[in-house]
Amino acid sequence: MSKILITGGTIFVSKYIAEHFVHRGDDVFVLNRNTHPQVHGVNLIQADKNTVCEQLKHHHFDLVIAVNIYTEKEMKNLLDGLSDIQDFIFISSSAVYPETSPLPFRESLPVGHNAIWGDYGENKIKAENYLIQKVPEAYILRPPYFYGKYQNLYREGFVFDCAVQKMPFYIPKDGKMKLQFYNVRDLCRFIDTLMIQKPAQHIFNVGNKQLIDINEFVQICYDIVGTPLNPVYVDASHNQRSYFPFYDYEYYLDVSEQYRLLPDTVSIYDGFKEDFEWYIDHRDDVMSKKTYFEYIEKVLKK
Fold this sequence. Notes:
The chain contains 9 helices and 13 strands.
């Protein structure tokens, strides 16, 4: 049994991680404001990540997993609150790579401003740099789009809803923009692998090596629901984000170093099927963007 601290623990990725380690039999602590239901079996440390957490100084953790840390200040507050650090994993972002860098993005590429993600990516870079300075042995993971159980963003859920309602699906341009996903179950498996193998490399791109374009993504979601897909292609004069849950931005990561340590991942179809089975009973847990439907009704259907 390990004593593990997870920042967050109540929303999507951090919630799934907390549940994973509880089921594994670890002594799991979560650091959050206690504004959402807690995972059964965790120990709550109620605090705001924007302040120095004095409560942490009374604990020793075998592993700290920083999930919902988005800025240098939040990282500093967390590290200042820890009396000692054994193992540390930071869930960063692929937004740290400039959109102008050559694809696929490799860990060896320089990080920098990304015009699509803006301050989000730059703040993640600052948090990474501060962590590297203070805890050079920490592991940093850079994922693409997360999906899976407890998803709180209205991405695949929107496609599922369209399929359940037997709607045509409005696809941006020719639908050939590639997407790269990462299942939260694979994230937990990779964290377990890192803690067992302790590789010398400390920054990893993580994700599914199988890329799918928008056409394939939508087709998979419709197949899972069991609805025939009737695609309607929308020209570039319409802002993609007005009717589709992903930016008009194709990027993907080289995840070969992850696969060297963990040579298999959940298949795209199986992962989204599990996602749908959870979603149909938990729609209210997802931040819905009904404006997609409004735009389709008011603009695209005319």
